[in-house]
Specification:
243 residues, alpha/beta, Spore Coat Polysaccharide Biosynthesis Protein SpsA, Chain A, 7-stranded mixed β-sheet
């Protein structure tokens, strides 16, 4: 296996990001943190951690920074990139399971799957995930176990194959767009069961706005379905009428 990279987008994560980096370092060759306009000392907290930090003065949002980091890592020869949140929502000790799945299927997009641990989530979050799995699965034309988990393994083969319009990568839209366009391109999805880590791990309010960002995601999937003629086969699959 060649170069393995972990990518961690961060915005005002000074309380947690170094812990995430330190737990991630043993599992990959490189850790890249993209500081998306933090003003709380996030970058300074990583001094001596071994992580490569790309710092920006302004905040563009998670989606744009993920695309930037993926482009950078793959241009540097990465075989795959594992993405994690900086707030400890994802456990770096799960990385070997993602790597093992990559070794089984090196062309698949590997998704973290919290479906067996949904009871740990707030009720509103559970409802949102279930709706997202249905709606995004309709757009993808396949069942999705956990469409909104940010811990993923992106293989280089997939990144070279899938073209996502820039307009669909902004803010929190990228991770949904990646599923839609990967499925359209024939990329397979594989899953790694992970824990849903909420209480005691997330130490700041989410940057996700439940109204504004939900509407953005709803609009993204709706327009994708419109362009695909509403993908009747995908809807029938999600309703359990077709296979």
């Amino acid at each position: 296996m060649g170069q393995t990279v972990a990518l961690i987008p961060a915005h005002n994560e000074v309380l947690t990001v170094r812990k995430v980096v330190e737990k991630t370092m043993p599992h990959v060759d490189r850790v890249i943190v993209i500081d998306d306009g933090s003003d709380d000392g996030t970058t300074e907290s990583l001094t001596g951690s071994g992580a490569e930090v790309i710092r920006h003065a302004s905040n563009l949002g998670k989606g744009s920074r993920l695309v930037e980091g993926l482009d950078f890592a793959f241009s540097q020869g990465a075989d795959f990139v594992i993405t994690l949140d900086a707030d400890q929502q994802h456990d770096p000790d799960d990385i070997p399971d993602f790597v093992a799945m990559f070794e089984t299927n090196a062309t698949a997009l590997v998704l973290g799957d919290r479906s067996e641990d949904m009871k740990q989530m707030p009720k509103s979050r559970r409802r949102g995930i279930k709706f997202g799995n249905f709606f995004i699965g309709w757009g993808c034309g396949c069942r999705i176990k956990d469409a909104q988990c940010g811990m993923r393994l992106y293989p280089a083969t997939m990144w070279k194959k899938v073209r996502i319009p820039t307009k669909d990568t902004k803010k929190f839209k990228f991770e949904t767009a990646a599923l839609l366009y990967a499925a359209k391109a024939g990329v397979q999805f594989e899953y790694v069961p992970i824990a849903a880590r909420y209480e005691g791990f997330i130490l700041r309010p989410s940057h996700f706005d439940p109204v504004r960002d939900f509407l953005r995601l709803f609009g993204l999937v709706t327009m994708f379905l419109v362009r695909r003629g509403f993908h009747l086969k995908g809807l029938l699959l999600m309703l359990g009428i077709a296979r």
